[in-house]
Design brief:
Blueprint lengths: L1 H33 L14 H7 L4 H11 L15 E2 L7 E10 L5 H5 L3 H10 L5 E7 L12 H9 L2 E6 L2 E2 L2 H6 L3 E4 L1 E2 L8 E4 L3 E3 L2 E3 L4 E5 L2 E5 L7 H14 L1 H6 L6 H23 L6
Parallel strand pairs: 2-3, 3-4, 4-6, 5-7
Antiparallel strand pairs: 1-6, 2-8, 2-11, 9-10, 11-12
Helix pairs in contact: 3-8, 8-10
Length: 292
């Protein structure tokens, strides 16, 4: 009987351990069929640390403004969160990094039995991925919340492994302690307990707040939400955001700000002219009209 139990445990452990690999293989095969030239995000060249620091200087809407000019994706549907998400540390500003992914189910205690070494294996996955890293967590209990994966201990451990923050469609707790650890969190709500929080799968595609996220995707996030940059759009993102921000500052914003004592008709004329200059500059740079 002991031998039988050992064999069952080993088989269950192997099945859990191989889940991330199976997910990656299945998704890669599907992507290859849909787009033979597609490259997994984790295999694309990464931006320099200098570029990441510069991206962090702007809020996520500004990064979106640049992204929509360079992408072939639908800027009204793709890349950003479709559901409401809350930034619990807005004072920390934006975070920029590459997705490492995790699936949890705190309401189900069976995962602790079927994956006894999951915590250790998951941490080794994290340690093996290049940073800076943002942990994107899908909670299978959604819409219910039974417990939080995040708290003071986990935030400090993940910070030590090169993670700068998380986006979780579950809950967080120990808010002040997580802030003290310098670990930013976007999530659905706060909660008291951890229930049976345990790694179920990792290194696999996840869906959070209505957005599909792949391991290795570049993410920009702040109090407005997050942008999971589609693979291939990263190289021109910084320059596009920089140019669109400058375009606004040279056209629409000064036309609106320099309005003291200006008659209404004249003000409207100036704003119309500024909008034309904004659109002309955007077309010259990107071949698109832009917001205005």
């Amino acid at each position: 009987m002991p031998k039988l139990i050992d064999l069952v445990s080993v088989r269950a452990y192997c099945e859990i351990s191989l889940l991330p690999v199976r997910f990656r293989r299945a998704n890669a095969a599907k992507e290859q069929l849909m787009n033979p030239d597609a490259i997994a995000p984790s295999r694309l060249p990464r931006l320099s640390h200098s570029d990441l620091l510069q991206l962090k200087r702007w809020n996520t809407p500004t990064i979106y403004n640049g992204w929509e000019q360079i992408t072939e994706h639908d800027a009204s549907r793709d890349a950003f969160n479709l559901e409401d998400v809350r930034d619990f540390m807005p004072q920390m500003g934006p975070m920029v990094g590459y997705a490492v992914t995790l699936v949890i189910q705190p309401g189900d205690g069976s995962h602790r039995r079927t994956g006894p070494s999951a915590w250790s294996d998951y941490r080794r996955y994290l340690a093996g991925e290049p940073g800076p890293k943002i942990v994107v967590v899908q909670d299978l209990d959604k819409p219910a919340v039974y417990g939080s994966f995040w708290g003071e201990v986990n935030s400090n451990v993940h910070r030590a492994l090169g993670c700068i923050g998380t986006i979780t469609d579950g809950a967080i707790r120990d808010l002040d302690e997580m802030t003290n650890a310098g670990f930013k969190a976007l999530g659905r709500r706060l909660c008291v307990g951890h229930a049976f929080a345990h790694p179920v799968r990792w290194g696999c595609p996840v869906e959070v707040f209505g957005r599909h996220v792949e391991p290795g995707q570049l993410i920009h996030a702040d109090k407005h939400g997050f942008l999971a940059v589609p693979p291939g759009d990263e190289p021109r993102l910084l320059q596009a955001a920089r140019l669109m921000d400058a375009n606004e500052c040279q056209t629409m914003i000064p036309a609106a700000r320099d309005s003291a004592g200006v008659p209404g008709d004249e003000l409207l004329r100036r704003i119309d002219e500024a909008a034309e200059r904004f659109a002309r500059t955007t077309r010259e740079r990107f071949g698109k009209k832009g917001e205005w």
